[in-house]
Amino acid sequence: MSPMIDIQLIATVTAAACAIPGVFLVLRKMALISDAISHSILPGIVIGFFITHDLASPWLIIFAAFSGIITVVLVELIQKTGLVKEDTAIGLVFPALFSIGVILIAQNANDVHLDVDAVLLGDLVYAPFDRLIIDGADFGPKGLWTISVILVITLVLLLAFYKELKISTFDVGLSSALGFSPVILHYGLMSVASVTTVAAFDAVGAILVVAMMITPAAAAYLLTTDLRKMLLLSVLFGVGSAIGGYWFARWLDASISGSITTVLGLLFLIIYLLHLAKD
Amino acid sequence: MRYARKFAVLRKQSLLGDAISHAALPGIAVAFLITGAKDSNVLLLGALVSGLIGVFWIRGITTKTHLKTDTALGLILSLFFGFGMLLLTYIQKQPNANQAGLDKYLFGQAATLVESDVLLMVIVTGISLLVMLLFWKEFKLLLFDKNYAMTLGFNTKFIDGLISFFIVLAIVIGLQTVGVVLMSAMLLAPAAAARQWTNSLSTMVILAAIFGAFSGVFGTAISASQNNLSTGPVIVLVAAIFVIVSFLFSPERGIIFKQIRLIKNRRDLQLKKTLYFMYDIVRDHDDISRPHAIRILNSFQGFTKKTLSKLEEKDWITIQGQNWSMTEDGFETAANLYNNNLPES
Predict the structure, then answer these.
(1) pTM of the model
(2) How far is B5 from chain A (nearest CA, A)?
(3) Which residue, A120, A165, A264, B143, has most beta carbons within 10 Å?
(4) CATH number at residue A130
(5) What CATH number has the domain bearing residue B151?
(6) How many domains does chain A have?
(7) Which of B15, B103, B230 shows the shortest C-beta gap to A90?
(8) With an 8 Å Cβ cutoff, are A99 and B236 in contact?
(9) Does residue B319 or residue B51 have the better pLDDT?
(10) What's the number of domains chain B is made of?
């Protein structure tokens, strides 16, 4: 496979894997949690790197996902004290964690390949060169495998718990009355979002993860209120923008993640204007 | 520069700062593309414009569609930032490689500030201070009761716009120091810390300004004292320490004092329970001050020697050797324990 197809495949699968939890984040008014997670996994990655000294180690993903979950827990702890509102809690937690990450990098990792820009922005261009090689046989890029596994897990979880997720998203009271714990579903969703963010940002960078999670879902939400259609539409939007963005970046010779985000933005702008015209 | 931020916390738009600071990035890139110069005033003007576009789009999304604020913020934040990155990488590939240094707006570098930058900050701070004092009453009203402000005939749209403008301005000016990524913390943390110590808006604004200024000074000092410490993150961490201390130790809302009050209330309740148990015994006798053995309280779990002496301290009972007897005062108190709402008969 050529790098060109590899990049598009990674972008496509990542877009699909992000779009699904994104729909629920948007519906549950937790869109900004993805932003918080994408920043605060930095210290997890840095600590994981110090322990393993290997940027490709799966431990990094585990550490990062762990610090993502710590973020969610911390935000909820601060919220529970009732001292500040939810969004303030988010805004307090992630910059602090991110700062710790940045300082850790600056202090210790000066001479290694781990810089903040790469973490924040990522770049798809290099993703195809990190290949999974077992017994000398080339099985394609590692990033593609990681994100595909996560997509499959997300899909399985979605199909298995579709009804529960749907009810607990729209009516917390009913869902607890029916015996599904909203808390377990909440943390389940958060864990999926966290792991997806970590895996995706390895390939596409922290900011694009946020765009890929929220934008397709928000655009789809403007077009339909049917959850099933919304899920399908947002996957479609995500995948479409991923491929469109890739070609746009080739034409401009600029950052692929930046251009995918831009295409997503244009898409949202068009749907937003259509929505305004309809009213 | 440190004044606009408090309003953001009170307006429940805490993460607006985060969104705006990211939204400013494409403006910087566009300003550079158009002028080709790295003059920081021009770049900041670009940042201001794109920040304002971001704010108005956020407002448009939340008022004209059913999407919620958090979604709108996340959208603007990521989309503008991604577009900005696209432009930055595009600029980097251009032949006139004058672009080095644009990325300092990502993380900020207080060390690269020159005199004219500082002067600009001082001027902007002065102007926003002046405007804040001029429109103080209007700001306050709008924050706490928008509808009332409207009925009084204030032009809420104008004031709203004014506040937004100054928030954007404060952020854009701050970008050079702490950068896009950490700006939101600078906007939030001092205000959130100040909120814990006071309920008055004016005190809160002053306190937040002090906290913000101190985090800036300490953060810069710490980062200057050591190699490899970037200024922005250190400032943010210092501000975070202010927040933690405020959460824990503020006398009114702080977690520690709240806990102490809770324990105190619980003890008080325990005390009253003991008293009521005694009241139950005493009630059956004609003479309320008749002594009873302490032993008979053993079937009631809630009492200790300490609670007894506490009760005595309050003059609710008297203790003589192994006996206790209830006072007139204690009897009254116990009788009225569970009917606080009734008038005393």
Answers:
(1) 0.74
(2) 12
(3) A264
(4) 1.10.3470.10
(5) 1.10.3470.10
(6) 1
(7) B15
(8) yes
(9) B51
(10) 2
Query: Six-digit token pair at B188?
Result: 């939030």
Co-location of B150 and B18 in the same domain: yes
C-alpha distance from B79 to closest chain A C-alpha (Å)? 5
User: Does one domain contain both B48 and B172?
Assistant: yes
pLDDT at B329 over 80: no
- Confidence band, pLDDT 50/70/90 cuts, at residue B76: confident
**Which residues of B are less than 8 Å from A279 in CB distance?**
64
Q: How confident is the model at residue A232 (pLDDT cuts 50, 70, 90)?
A: very high
- Chain A residue numbers touching B53 (CB-CB < 8 A): none
Q: How far B312 CA sits from the closest chain A CA (Å)?
A: 36
Same-domain pairing of B174 and B51 = yes
A216: left (phi over 0), alpha (psi -120 to 50) or beta: alpha
Q: What type of residue is B180?
A: V
State chain B's mean pLDDT as an integer: 75
- A122/chain B closest Cα distance in angstroms: 11
Residue B113 sits in which domain range?
Answer: 5-182
Co-location of B160 and B269 in the same domain: no
Residue B24 in tokens: 């400013």
The verdict on B177 and B315 lying in the same domain is no
How far apart CA B63 and CA B68 sit, in angstroms, is 9
Q: Do B87 and A117 touch (CB under 8 A)?
A: no
pLDDT over threshold 50, residue B345: no
d(CA B70, CA B72): 5
Residue in chain A nearest B190 by alpha carbon: A92
Higher-confidence position of B303 and B327: B327
Q: Letter for the amino acid at A272?
A: Y
Residue B105 in domain: yes
Residues B17 and B150 in one domain: yes
- Is A83 within 8 Å of B22 when comparing Cβ atoms? no
For the residues B202-226, what does the mean pLDDT come to? 81
Tell me if A42 sits within 8 A of A207, measured CB to CB.
Answer: no
Contacts of B190 in chain A (CB under 8 A): none
Q: Which of B165, B182, B199 is the C-terminal boundary of a domain?
A: B182
pLDDT in tens, A184-208: 877 888 888 888 887 777 667 777 7
Distance CA A271, CA A221 (A): 10
Tell me whether B103 touches chain A (CB under 8 Å): yes
| B136, B156, B182 - which closes a domain | B182
The SS3 assignment for A179 reads coil
Give the whole-angstrom CA distance, residue B243 versus residue B193. 5
**Which chain A residue has the Cα nearest residue B236?**
A96
Domain that holds residue A178: 3-213
Q: Which of A192-201, B91-100, B282-291 has the highest mean pLDDT?
A: A192-201
Of the ranges B49-53, B151-155, B193-197, the best mean pLDDT one: B49-53
User: Do B266 and B134 reside in the same domain of the chain?
Assistant: no
**Is residue A150 situated within a structural domain?**
yes
Residue B141 in domain = yes
Mark out the alpha helices in chain A (DSSP H runs): 3-27, 31-52, 58-81, 86-108, 116-121, 142-160, 162-170, 172-177, 182-204, 206-223, 227-252, 256-278
CATH number at residue B285: 1.10.10
Q: Look at B188 and A253 and tell me if their CB atoms are within 8 Å.
A: no
Is B71 within 8 Å of A214 when comparing Cβ atoms? Answer: yes
